Amino acid sequence: MHKIRTLALLALASLPLAAPAEDGWPSKPITLVVTYPAGGAADMLARLVAPKMAATLGQSVVVENKPGGAGQIGAAYVARSRPDGYTVMVDGGGYAINPVLFPKLPYDTAKAFAPIGILGVFPLVLVTSPDYSARSVAELVSMSKAQPGSVSYASPGTGSTQHLATEQFLQQARIRMVHVPYKGGSPAMADVMGGHVPVYVANIGSGLSSIQAGKLRPLAVMAARRSPSLPDVPTMAEAGIAQAEAYEWNGMFVPSGVAPAIADRLADALRQALEAPDVQQKIKSAGGEIYPGGRTEMVDFIKQQTQRMGKVVRDGNIRPE
Asked: What is the pTM of this model?
């Protein structure tokens, strides 16, 4: 009996080891969970890269929107999902803001997700209603200092990237304005174009066409350099306000625990998608920029965004509604 057992063990030992599970990945469709509604920048970018990634990976890549809670609903869903690479998240600037804005989240952002790559970076633009009397940043600052609290500004909601970007500008310029929060960027921008609220910080991706049509007047781009889409518009620093850069960005993440080999394949598929000329042209035509770094640089970028927005939240004593 002992001899038989020994021979059986030797026979098993001679068999080839089972291949790691990631060697057969992907064997079914991959879902890109977008934490914002259909029609926005995150959704547009996800649908732009999905078919390119599918071609590289050899499996369908399906976009599924799970909006709500400033991105928390979709993020919580992904954080709870099985870390097998089949559930991937596309989030926005709220990824860096929520940990410093909300006292408690349904997940630990730093531990729940692993970065894959940044799909696009969109500078924000300080704009006014087309007929508003302030025609430059200097005039807007002067007007606000002369009559503190007399000027109002719109935002897509308390704690949104645009809200915090505006507050950062106000803090750096040492002025006060009245915040008028809306339930989304579209109604906020519509009221600014209509002259009901004079000031807004627009995502260049959603505001560019209105700026080019003369429905919004751009005062400054909140970026390190001028936007190729708005070459005649100064940066905030050129307009005299330092340390007022702000961007909307969209990143791709997986739940922590996804095998490194799978994360590498997703990152490579995204990189190839973003290198496609038609994808680059679409992003640039919307006023966006292709992020030049990889996953390591992405971690540093998000850390910087979190620190910058955290300071704005603390200095402004901003609380979620």
From this structure: 0.87
From CA 206, how far away is CA 162, in angstroms rounded? 12
The three-state DSSP-derived secondary structure of 18-78 is CCCHHHHCCCCCEEEEECCCCCCHHHHHHHHHHHHHHHHHCCCEEEEECCCHHHHHHHHHH
Sorting pLDDT into bands at 50, 70 and 90, what band is 75?
very high
With 0-12 CB in 10 A as exposed, 13-18 as middle and 19+ as buried, what is 285? exposed
For residue range 175-204, list pLDDT tens digits in order. 999 999 998 888 999 999 999 999 999 999
Q: Specify the DSSP element, H or E, that contains 249.
A: strand 247-255
Half-sphere exposure of 267 (CA within 13 A, CB side): 18
Over 60: is that where the pLDDT of 132 sits? yes
**Reduced to 3 states, what is the DSSP secondary structure of residue 121?**
strand
Which residue spans within 92-238 are E strands per DSSP? 113-128, 152-155, 178-181, 199-203, 217-221
H or E, element range at 87:
strand 87-91
Q: How much is the pLDDT for 9?
A: 41
Q: What is the pLDDT of residue 18?
A: 35
SS3 143: helix
Peptide bond into 181 cis (omega under 30): no
How many angstroms separate the first and last alpha carbons of the chain? 73
